[in-house]
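Sorry to interrupt, but I need a hand with the structure work. Leave the record below and I will have a look:
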Amino acid sequence: MQLTKTDYIQYLNCSESLWLFKNKPDEYPNGEFSLFLQKLIDEGYEVEELAQKLFPYGIKLPEFGSPKDTEDALEKDSICFFQAAFKTDKGVFARIDVLEHIHNNTWHIYEVKSSTSVKTDKKHSHLKDACFQKYVLEQNGYKVSKVSIIHLNKDYIRNGVIDTGELLNVEEVTDRIEEVYADVAMEVEQAVHYINQPSIDETKCSCRLNTRTNHCDSFGYFNKDVPEFSIYEIGNIRANKIEELHDAGILEIKDIPNNFSLNAKQALQLQSARKDSPIIAQAKIDKILSSLEFPLHFIDYETYASAVPRIDGVKPHQHIPFQVSIHTMQADGSIEHFEFLAHELEIPAQLVQFMSDSTGMTGTFISCRYPVDTPIFRTVSLQN
């Protein structure tokens, strides 16, 4: 059974979820493929194509080419290859963004990322990605002496035609790779063994002790005993609290004991769950509302960001506002609506002028702060 780099990352996040995906694909709850996810994929390809310009001598192998295609290409007198594919005798498969033949008959692996730094977080470590590639290459008998991550330069500001050399940073991580390589090699071998097991315990998965945002797609399949209003719904609860409650056999919010340590907001959530009704802080609401100065401007806006800047004056992943909707309420309760939609992507000078003209820059501006469930209030005057 084949194990790819994506499979390996999934194994690290939830081994049971990967087993289900590999062994019972019809049971695996595939999430909806969104336009946003497609945008991220497309941007990744775009950054890869730009990175290839750093290697004008590179040979582009067939798209989705096989390890045999790579083997044939490596026998020719070339020193750099894009999308070289390799597979171990145990089925571990890697496709390397850029592979360069260097001194002493060794190889330099380049991993291309559309981020602005080398990520090392638990969910997705670029170092482990690169280790995986090195493992597969060395299992095929090739010596890897250097590893680098190519990522976007967070300080780059577009000015005319994209300057690839300025947009991209090539960060060597060879020493950092050596520090974690042995662990990654062991994890890869464990993953191969795990997915080839004929059966596993399907009554729970590794995500059971994680917070809700860190649950796998198949959490519901493995954890059918978890109720609808579970401990995972407690706002901003930490994993150690989840583990403590789980060890005590508590899965439902209402069963959390009174002496369990929760912050003020979490305690209110518990109280609301027990009463099966919302808790309304009427006095606090009245105090906030009475402090607002009319007119009230309720603002909603949309932004666009891209890995590679689309217009001058913008950095990688910088958000550009392009749409705004304003509902203005006067003291007598009357409401007027203003809206702006840019016809093309641009620095939002016209949008800012529109907001100034529409609101007169007086009163209170109200907007939602995501993901925190409290609004932002700002009172401004003409003098501001």
